[in-house]
Fold this protein.
Amino acid sequence: MIRLAFAVFLLLIGSASAFAHGDEYFDTHPTPHGGQMRMAGPYHLELVTGKNAVTLYVTDHAGANVDTTGGSAKVIITSGKKKRYVVVLSSAGDNALKGEGEFKLSKASTVSVLVALPGQEPQRATFNLSKHGKGAAKSHH
């Protein structure tokens, strides 16, 4: 009986760690759209930037798309000590939130995101573009 309980315990620990991904994990694995990914509560958030555009893709911990209909996000980009830019994102269909605004990114930029989806608690994530040399991808659209 003790062996069975121990085996179940090990399986639970193993399965829990399979779904818990830290920044180091995301920084070393490819992402669906080439951006930087972070975990925020029950979501994985992938940040992709383009010229004056920001897209945030939302998936669950299993990688399935999360419907963003009626959702929004606030993105705060910090470049340098005094430069802050705010971009508001709105639902863009499927699992994407998109917005436009004027901003400048550098390898030293940090991007803070607050995501609000209907019926869910707001979630936060911070993207550090210099971490491990992988920043937010440039959109090709």
Remarks:
- Residues 72 and 90 are 4 Å apart (CA to CA).
- The domain at 22-138 is CATH 2.60.40 (Immunoglobulin-like).
